[in-house]
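Recap quiz, item 2
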Amino acid sequence: MTEMRTLKVALLGCGNVGAQVARILIEDADALAARTGARLQLSGIAVRNVNSRRDVDLPQELFTTDAETLVKDADLVIELMGGIEPARTLILSALRNGACVVTGNKALLAQDGPTLYEEADKAHVQLSYEAAVAGAIPILRPIRDSLSGDRITRVLGIVNGTTNYILDQMDSTGAQFADALAEAQRLGYAEADPTADIEGHDAAAKAAILASLSFHTRFALENVHCEGITSVSAADIAAAKDAGFVIKLLAIAEKLSDAEGGEGVSVRVHPTLLPREHPLAAVRGAFNAVFIEAENAGELMFYGQGAGGTPTASAVLGDLVSAARRLVLGGPGRTETTTGHVPALPIDAAVTSYYIGLDVADEPGVLARIAQLFAEHGVSIEIMRQTIHRDAESNVESAELRIVTHRASEAALAATVEAVKGLDVINSVTSVLRVEGV
Amino acid sequence: MTEMRTLKVALLGCGNVGAQVARILIEDADALAARTGARLQLSGIAVRNVNSRRDVDLPQELFTTDAETLVKDADLVIELMGGIEPARTLILSALRNGACVVTGNKALLAQDGPTLYEEADKAHVQLSYEAAVAGAIPILRPIRDSLSGDRITRVLGIVNGTTNYILDQMDSTGAQFADALAEAQRLGYAEADPTADIEGHDAAAKAAILASLSFHTRFALENVHCEGITSVSAADIAAAKDAGFVIKLLAIAEKLSDAEGGEGVSVRVHPTLLPREHPLAAVRGAFNAVFIEAENAGELMFYGQGAGGTPTASAVLGDLVSAARRLVLGGPGRTETTTGHVPALPIDAAVTSYYIGLDVADEPGVLARIAQLFAEHGVSIEIMRQTIHRDAESNVESAELRIVTHRASEAALAATVEAVKGLDVINSVTSVLRVEGV
């Protein structure tokens, strides 16, 4: 029997995910060696403070504050520090030294991915980041490898568990946003400062990564139109529910053709109505899922836990074992397939269906006038429903009008809504929400 | 710019899937070259009769009956003939010549996979077969690569669209099995001879492949306990529905420990009750899905089209592009990870929950006697529900008893059912079905 090679693994960061990665590397050493063909030796864990309390009991001698030295001596580097610096400098240093790098740093990838990918290409080593999108769910590898002979046309992702938990709570209990957020914070699903989640920034970084792999073009955060869920009201949710929809925060990347036959990709994050029978509508609580439409494969969905130390560690270790196998076999790095140059489209070019709620005067002919206005702007109405309310005390009647349009451009819709606001029979526009899956 | 290398692709078989693979290879040649770094040139299509009508209009000069010569000259061989011979001989010949092979031949893999895997290992080439399980759904690659740093504990798969369509029809319309089968045949979801589907043989071959990759051990068809859906009655479905369950034909592979701490894998196919809120319960019509439980990742589900020419072609092309990339980069073949030796367990060792329907005498003390009998055999009851029917004419009362057990071994359950049959208060055992997901 030949002696087994040892590969040195440097771990940068020991938070929620890092601590579980370290635990599994130690506890499952034999199984990982069998899978890999090499012993994966955890050579050190770089942290800011070696005496901090950790989620997991780990050998004290592994901890160091000297990340640079640790990286210099490693065959494989796992970066789980988060943030831009020093993560960026350490990853670039590792790649230049010929180490394979596994990272879960979505913010860094979305901001500066191209620099990192180029460095990995130059050094002929692997840079893997399955953990950066949808936690434990294998989604990047299937897109990159399994669907490499197909053409993805659209990606719809529930990629932020915090907002999915909040919207699910609002949907099932009727709670207002602020109350559902407070509950999510109490249960640990939302952080004390929830901005990155509820404003959609976290989902936007993931959208940029999904779009880049799906459309073989490098999209950055600045290409992603981003709206969070802070303005979604209990009334929006109730109205959507009543009409057979559920509201989800979706990361969307889809290929669109313009009138001249030019192609582009619309990458965006916003609250979206989905029909209750859509596979994504059943994704409850803090779970994540990514729904993919491809020309040949048709509809695919990938579902699982999108966060949490142990689930995310599973994705990190999958990348690590794959990179280690390649090192053992002596093969070359991965071919990057982000070779295309499909332009990112501005949000005005996005084409989707819309849900519009209007508070209107209860007068004859109102529906006809509104319908005509939509038609004049080239926005076709799929469903129009009016509900009359009578105030018990004042006996005054008001009418609520709910419209679901066929697919239309953001620009056409915005112009329509502006024009509708100018009608004297309109009291207010109560909601404008995008719809997918109809 | 360097000149692009050409890789010769031999296609064996031109049925439903093969014709679509040929079409895409020709139509998407430029995109595939961009993804791969080489031109994939379809060098020929081996068929039994070059003049047969095809689903797709393809250049007549590509067709040949001489598969051997075609294979000898190919860099990549796609085998979509099905059946054992001549597919087996041609694949072995291709591997020995150093060609990478992509196949969707589940029957051959389940019967003789180990021979093929060894030959591919020896020749340092890739043997890929994503299309053999769950059509378009990327499932084998995620199991092999993405979950390589985790431990899969259980796999539950809806991997046969024909039976899922039939059971779904029975569930939604109340139809009997024979009528639902006839409808499936009329719509093309079931073949004229539906034996391989409805008896579970097709699902059993896929179960062997899923189990082998999930548990790093080579399981063959003979290790799979197989029951089809022919004995599932409309009454079974109605009773399950009434109790909050749906009946699905599942391919199951799960790791079990025996009392002595020994480990084994139970691989089986049988009709199974699932709670309606389980993610697999929502998989309707001819769709497929695979639900995976892993120690670290937790619960994952992969959903999509399990059959059909174009969707399955997507999986074939994903394998082809991945193999071609490897050839272009000059890297080694894939490491096989089926290095373990976990024993396959007989069906008696399987541990699951059970649903038991009993037609019993409506007498005092019957429930207590039955409950005691279950307890004596070590089978714990989770739910017990009695419904009294009164025949309007005869005025005779009969009682129907429905029991859902906690997890118990097949052996214990079988002994319990035998004992129950011997009770004088039992008119008949109306159904015994396995339950997952409770």
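Chain A has 14 helices and 17 strands.
The first helix of chain A runs from residue 16 to 27.
End of item.
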